[in-house]
Amino acid sequence: MTSDSSPVLIVGLGNPGTIYAQTRHNAGAMLIDELLDRTTPMPAQLSVHKKTNTEVAELTAGRLTNRRTILARTRGFMNVSGGPIKALASYYGVKPADIYVIYDELDLDFGQVKLRLGGGDHGHNGLKSVTKSLGTPNYNRLAIGIGRPPGRQAPADYVLKPFGKQESAELPIMLADAADELLAGMS
């Protein structure tokens, strides 16, 4: 799915601030922490990249993947994440086919993960913003299943609520599985 001539950009979608940190909508941002913890020889840390309003960790080949990798989280709200992602891609010279956007997906059961190149946005405003800003849907997407809201709860309310007790207990396993899927799909 990637070409060797440019770095890989992996961006986790989410909303800023502690109020949103443990919500379902921040599953993508949470996965960045899992990936940071996997870097060797020691965990990497994000730092503010002022030109793009993001937090980034620049990794040399071999620290996480066999290619130079930029891990990132946007610092603004998910619905306007496309601009910062486009700015990162431009700054680092990353082609859309080498961009991996990680996001929460209502249409997958909790814990399911799906990696795909291109496709629709499934009503996800973060993906809509990214597609519009990049001018193409041909970037990689890693969907992390959060399941549908119970009863008649509005999807917008559901994604902005923290994971339930049972889900929170299973969250580390889900994130580890999602990281495995992403890294396997990149090789």
Automatic annotation (TrEMBL):
A molecular function GO annotation: tRNA binding
Annotated SUPFAM superfamilies: Peptidyl-tRNA hydrolase-like
**Entry EC no(s):** 3.1.1.29
| Database matches in CDD domains | PTH (cd00462)
Specify the enzyme's EC class, one word: hydrolase
Q: Which reaction is this enzyme known to catalyze?
A: an N-acyl-L-alpha-aminoacyl-tRNA + H2O = an N-acyl-L-amino acid + a tRNA + H(+)
Name of the molecule in the record: Peptidyl-tRNA hydrolase
The top of its lineage is: Bacteria, Bacillati, Actinomycetota, Actinomycetes, Mycobacteriales
Underlying gene = pth
